[in-house]
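This follows on from our talk about sequence and fold. I would like you to pick a protein and set down its sequence and fold. Go ahead and set the record down below:
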Amino acid sequence: LCPLSLPVSVHLSEMHLTPWGRAICYAFAAIFLLFANVGAEDPYRFFTWNVTYGDIYPLGVRQQGILINGQFPGPDIYSVTNNNLIINVYNSLPEPFLLSWNGVQQRRNSYEDGVYGTTCPIPPGKNFTYIMQVKDQIGSFYYFPSLAFHKAAGGFGGIRILSRPLIPVPFANPADDYTVLIGDWYKTNHTILKAILDRGKKLHFPDGILINGLGPNGATFTVEQGKTYRLRISNVGLQSSLNFRIQGHMMKLVEVEGTHTVQTSYESLDVHVGQSYSVLVTADQPAQDYYIAVSTRFSDQVLNTTAILHYSNSAKPVSGPPPLGPTPAVGWSMNQARSIRTNLTASGPRPNPQGSYHYGLINITRSIKLVSSAAQVNGKQRYAVNSVSFVPADTPLKLADYFKIGGVFRVGSIPDSPTGSQMYLDTAVMGADFRAFVEIVFENRERIIQSWHLDGYSFFVVGMNGGLWTPASRKQYNLQDAVSRSTTQVYPNSWTAIYIALDNVGMWNLRSEFWARQYLGQQFYLRVYSPVESIRDEYPIPKNALLCGRASGRSTRPV
């Protein structure tokens, strides 16, 4: 039995591998790749993960956490542009489980996206092997559990995609490269949080902030005096925008979610929920320890935590108060966001400069306005986009689409712009044409900051400002060097506009990264469709795809 190459899920109790048997399995897995949805000419990397519950104490009280191979947070994924990742996930939880890959575009392959609209959950006691390629990507991302409210229990970890050896990178190799996962956290077990939401109630404000799964002063990053280090900072939390800063040190921003940026130095950096940044930090201060400080932004209650930047030849521990955060004024944060721009002369995943794609010269073929809202539906708290509060179907939408199963969803069940109608429940799917060039405006009429993510894509953040968006707002757009990323913030009573080239066929989740809002309906699926059913546009369904709901009992395709 070779679990890495199984076309179907297996029970954990069936695995009894000798070292010789494991070697045979890896060889067989290599052969298996020749028939999989990945390029056999590109290198591949194998990962075998066991997902379990375990006791964790991040804020000093015992909680039920989700561990991957016994780790909280989970292990990092190291990869290089175009690598094929074969990630075999064994679900040892007593309930279904899925992992999704925030920012990994799954080119032509939304089946592997790991959200319920595309992928059947891994049943308890069984496994599933994700087969995906980090095609034409570089940068800093993360993975997380997408079902139920598992994200509040852990199961997340960093993803780094390095440039290929012959592709120039616009900065010298750092002395080391650290993953820094920051996020708000509840002391309450995720099962209780989920039950509160299922009853139609709101969650209280989080209890604290974690840095790499640890509470105040729990995490330490060791540096050598005079050397420069890369920190890959991702906000893996549930709702809070966070400010990140290091006592006595400047941070040079070099990359945002796969885009090399203009190298601007900051004293502190706002990282909104779901976002990832890479900064360079030089250990150019006297040899001692320094605070790394993280605090919530734009919230009535302010949470703070700290970690330690430890010089290897440190002569004294941290001293003085941790550095204070910036002004709470929205304008400061918005100006910082506008200052983050694409480095047009740097190479991306390919050797050609990032500025060679002139997005500002392309005509918009469609304009979409998305307005969020909160309301009660049938006496329960719900959240919506353009008045539609998403409810999952009984079958993953991508499978229903592939097998042409009627009655699961309706394309066009969410409008392109707000209608002003009362909130209602539906399995919201918006249709879009392959190769269209689309403008999306996120309009936030609420007092909270919001964060939005689109799977399968990077988009250009061309503008943001206060008030309501109008067609005249386009005069403010940055059509030269806007940053390309997959998650953007929308400030309170403000708008953010993005441009997207819809060049990736599939079923793609567009969601609020405020996780309780996402869970209670603030999401929908963008169905990017090509009438030509060709492997050039989209891979066929994976041979090992799990089938559930009304797709149960059907066959994928012959080996």
User: Anything to note?
Assistant: The CA atoms of residues 390 and 426 lie 5 Å apart. Helices lie at 19-33, 190-198, 330-339, 397-403, 515-519.
